[in-house]
Design brief:
2 domains; alpha/beta; about 35% helix; 4-stranded mixed β-sheet; Alpha/beta knot; about 250 residues; 10 strands; 60s Ribosomal Protein L30, Chain: A
């Protein structure tokens, strides 16, 4: 399956160009004076991309939203990475593998934010299920601030079976769930690792929890009983960064 061919927003298009991925045509808001947009247009022209200027109504119609920052682009096909090749690339890298597997996270803003954080934390990829989950929609691309141009995203079938595949590849699978007695800082994240996170409302499904090597929680010291899933993933990923000595 391939991602939609339309993205919008300054950062997503900027990162698409920076990553050397094809941008077939760039549409900008007519009459707008903005240095960032002018620099984006110059970079697009240098990359051989056709640039057109349209009125706001046309850009709103193309993007399906008013939150496009006056920037809409038609991009080349961006397919999902194959799980097996993603694992192999992760294992052949300079650091121990670090992957994020999402269990039915349906909010595209959360998925985009997780991809953005995972890329920033040096993770090797994000795995999302094909059903009951947000895919690489334009909203996800926008929320990732262009991180999807740099970080592989694999679409998998059954999450529990995917965990079996990851464990067979000698990756240590840790599920994040509120009721776990052990905290996330007790895990050795310097090992080849997979972090599994579920939706904010339902959390990890029972079968998914059973397949994980271990379950951990994040201490909540206030009155709220949960964190946004993208925030929770970020907290744990940066513990991995700390343990791996990359934040020193």
């Amino acid at each position: 399956m391939s991602a939609p061919r339309l993205i919008y927003g300054i950062h997503p298009v900027q990162e698409q160009l920076r990553a050397g991925r094809p941008v077939e045509r760039l549409y900008l808001l007519k009459g707008r004076r903005d240095q960032r947009v002018e620099e984006l247009a110059a970079a697009a022209v240098e990359a051989g991309t056709a640039v057109r200027y349209e009125d706001r109504h046309q850009l709103d119609r193309m993007a399906g939203t008013t939150h496009h920052q006056g920037v809409v682009a038609m991009v080349g096909e961006q397919g999902y990475a194959a799980l097996e090749s993603l694992i192999e690339r992760a294992k052949s890298g300079p650091s121990q593998p670090l992957l994020v597997l999402l269990d039915e996270v349906e909010d595209p803003h959360n998925v985009g934010a997780i991809i953005r954080t995972a890329e920033a934390a040096g993770a090797n990829g994000v795995l999302i299920p094909a059903r009951r989950a947000a895919g690489l929609t334009p909203t996800v691309v926008k929320a990732s601030a262009g991180a999807v141009a740099h970080l592989p995203v694999a679409r998998v079938g059954n999450v529990a079976q995917t965990i079996d595949t990851l464990k067979a590849a000698r990756l240590w699978v840790t599920g994040l769930t509120a009721e776990a007695p052990n905290v996330y800082t007790a895990v050795d994240w310097t090992l080849p690792s997979v972090l599994v996170a579920g939706s904010e409302g339902k959390g990890l499904r029972h079968l998914v929890k059973e397949r994980c090597d271990q379950l951990v929680s994040i201490p909540l010291l206030g009155r709220v009983d949960s964190l946004n899933v993208s925030v929770a993933v970020g907290v744990v990923l940066y513990e991995a960064v700390r343990q791996r000595g990359k934040g020193a």
